[in-house]
Amino acid sequence: MASLAQRVSVPLGVTSRRPAVAPVALLGALPVRPSQVSVGSRLAVKPVAPVRARQTLVTKASAADAPKELDALETTVSKVVGAKLAPTVVTLSFITIWYALNIGFNLLNKTIFKYFPYPYTVSTIHVVVGLVYCVLVYAVGLKSWSFGRPVTKQEFKNIFGPAAMHAVGHVAANISFAAVAISLTHTVKTLEPAFNVVLSKVILGEATPLPVLLSLVPIMFGVALASAGELSFNWTGFLTAMASNLTFGFRAVWSKRAMTKSLDGTAVYAYTTLISVLICVPWALLAEGSTLVEGAKAAIANVGASRFYTDLFMVGMLYHLYNQFAFNTLERVSPVSHGVCNVVKRVAIIGSSVLFFNQTLTAQAMVGTVIALIGTWLYTEMSSKHKHKKAPPPPAAAGGASPAAA
């Protein structure tokens, strides 16, 4: 009993008395559980371990605060701006370059169509120049800037479907660019999410939430308003822009179920370019081959051989590089952020084309374009807040591939 008094540092007389209340009640404010108290052993309290819980929390916090590993480019940039800002600076630089290349492509592309109205051929030149670039870069050893590595037959098959839709959509968009003002084509192309919604339901069985569906209404209304008020409107330009929306919708939907995660965005686009060449070259020869030589001679007589060939080479490089930076940007940001970037990109392209070509926009066309762009932004916001309801997955099949962006 004396040893017990020494351990609890109270008079012996106190320890010999039975407590007036149950020990559990006396210890209610202490960090112990009832199971840790033995009534018959006079305050014999088992050890508690609140410190262990606190240690766990500290460990989690330190793991969350651990610095993110930087890639090679971010490491180089971090020497100038610091490790914390490097990822943001690289991402913003990618977006800026993407915008600049895209605006340059659209302006030069439309300029070429003014003296060489051969959209099938020009579309083919875009991808042929891109393929030559990829092959040369790969040959000098910069494989990460091009194909990355050889793909298997299954991987090539997985990429082929979305890449074929990319090629067809690219040709259709260029037919529209040649037929109507750039502003109208890009306004019509804001309808692409509507096609994605329909195709996702038909092909993937994904149901689109009602708020997302409602956000498509201002897009459709804006496109209709802008088309009706556009001075350069014609049905060829309008319908081919809609066909481009349809094929790019197929590309987006098929990419969700057919692409591979083992290739980065640069490599995926390099193989997409290769497949596009296989499709566009014979298509262009069939569509415009009979008059191509005469058309090229007329263009050279108009602007000179040097400018003609330089413009074709430069527009091909701009096309390939802006798409490559778009793929690289998508790898660094969320799909929702990428969608917002696309909205801002269309605003920049429409505004720059109106200024560059001194285009006259009617008030109706201007209001319709603004409404369509706002609707596109609203669609992006609603899509981020209301996720699509996916259909039950089909039975697993051998050789399935993981999805990735196209």
What topology does this entry show?
Layout (H helix, E strand, L loop, with lengths): L1 H7 L3 H4 L7 H4 L10 E2 L5 E2 L4 H15 L7 H10 L4 H30 L3 H21 L13 H27 L2 H7 L3 H13 L5 H5 L1 H14 L5 H24 L6 H24 L3 H12 L1 H28 L2 H22 L6 H23 L21
Antiparallel strand pairs: 1-2
Helix pairs in contact: 5-6, 6-16, 6-17, 7-8, 7-14, 7-16, 8-13, 8-14, 9-13, 9-17, 10-13, 12-18, 14-16, 15-16, 17-18
Largest sheet: 2 strands, antiparallel
Query: How much of the polypeptide forms β-strand, as a percent range?
Result: under 5%
- Average of the residue pLDDT scores: 80
Helix/strand structural class: mainly alpha
H/E element order = HHHEEHHHHHHHHHHHHHHH
Number of helices: 18
Uncertain stretches: 10-16, 21-31, 37-43, 51-65, 394-406
Topology, number of strands: 2
Global geometry: globular
Radius of gyration: 32 Å
Going across the major beta sheet, what is the strand order?
A: 1-2
